[in-house]
Amino acid sequence: MIALESLTVRFGGLVALDTVSASFTAPVSGIIGPNGAGKTTTMNVISGFLTSAGSVTVDGTDLMRLAPHQRSRWGLRRSFQREQIADDLTVEENLWAIADNLSGSRAEKRANIATALEFTGITAIRTKPGAALNTFERRLCDLARCITGDPRLIMLDEPAGGLTVEETARLGGLIGAIPGLGRAQVLVIDHDVDLIQRICAETLVLDFGRRIAFGPTAAVLADPAVKAAYLGIEVEHA
Amino acid sequence: MQITRSGLVGLILAALAILVLPMLAGGQWLKIFTSTTAFALAAMGAGFMYARLGMVSLAQVGLMGIGGWVTLRLNHAFNLPFEANLLIGAAMTSVLGMILALPALRMRGLYLALITLMVAGGLEIIFTAYQFPNGGDGFWGVGTSFSATMRRPFLGQTDAGFLRYALVVALLGFLLIEGHRRSASGRAWALIRRSEAAALASGVNVTLYKTWAFGLSGLLAGLGGGVLAGSLGLLDASTFRASESVLLFALVVVGGARFWLGAVITAVLYRVAPGLLNNWGVDADLALVFFGAALLHAVITAPDGLAGQIFGLFSKEAAHDRA
Questions:
Q1: Domain count within chain A
Q2: Which of A84, A128, A133 is the mutation pick for testing B, counting most B CBs within 10 A?
Q3: I need a surface site. Which of A47, A205, B23, B250 has the fewest CB within 10 A?
């Protein structure tokens, strides 16, 4: 379970997150909202890149007490809106760059990396340097990085950005299959409501840093307040 | 451990240089090649920081001065062999490099470069004010009227022998960098270069690996300074001016920071080109004009420098050749 408890982040006068709370229990959950709603800010708080009031607890561990790189060793993985593949490293070395910082024997890590490459279907290009990968290969490599080392929580920030419809569908299938690999819970941010609808059982909707809806995805998307936030319709508040 | 093609060429060239170069060169050129080797060590340090971590260090020649200072000071104070003086000098430069890195760790890009430039400026003032030890009394060890001898390594008593010795040290320096590049440190550095956020999200201890890079770069500069001290026996503050550090970095970009050949080209341009011009009866300062033009060329059309272009002639894969 991922428990966010009254997260509040201020940038000067701007309130980027305003007492946001949510408890994700589904294997794959989503966070949606218009631009500037606070989705990435939420992710940055969970990663430890931003300090925030409130607490983040995952399976009983208080993440706020760990430095960002310690959170990764604990089992947090994330991708960024722009994929972060090191151009000078091969696909395989990009995965090793994460495994290097984890405990465990070399043989275990090698087996783990082989699994991650196989799962994402990039075993054949494992010796290609990062600089030579196309957009989809980079996204797949990024996803393989996120499942390296038996993680507990994986956060994907717009994983389907820049992909075609077919590629998005394939990536969506892979994300949906991640919980079957091990103990990881997945949080996905995306603009693509179709993707969220397809793979996320629970969804949190943010607008202007506030939680406007949270619950089962179908119910949340039917909520008039959510429709208003997306379509820009004024809703009469009783 | 796999040897890449450019690495193999490098090893062969290094073996040839160690065997043949001291036989071909004579007199003044032996010393010029030895100091070229010393500057190649320093250029290597600045080069890997720039190519692998994207950090600009403008204090590399100043750090060489530290290595040289400590090596000379130990030589005149104790009766240790040259190797001990050289290694202690390099280790102390490395530690100083790491300490200097501490305020710089939160900085990036231009601001980091400016901090290292200020360090180079500070070192220039200290070297000019106190000069280098020549066997005199006191902590600074500077006497006015005499100069004690600088002991050389057993295998490098002659100038030719010492050139061989310096080339071996430089080869070990290259292998040290290459070993790092292929291990966890190299992968962590590659991520830091991509973005620090990505490195943190991958569990990399960014502070540790950045400090280690500064330490390694300082170690190479210190080795270079110690080799220079061993070759010349006396060092002069004017060698280690801040402007020299800036010039060396500019030539690192010209030479190509990603490749071993780049460090060699950098040092040759830095040390041999002015000497050649002198031999031809042309003002050595004219070299600066050529360097400026070469830097523009590198920045505009050759991001991997001359070394990148040379390897590019031989291999289509050169752009991705990671050695």
A1: 1
A2: A84
A3: B23
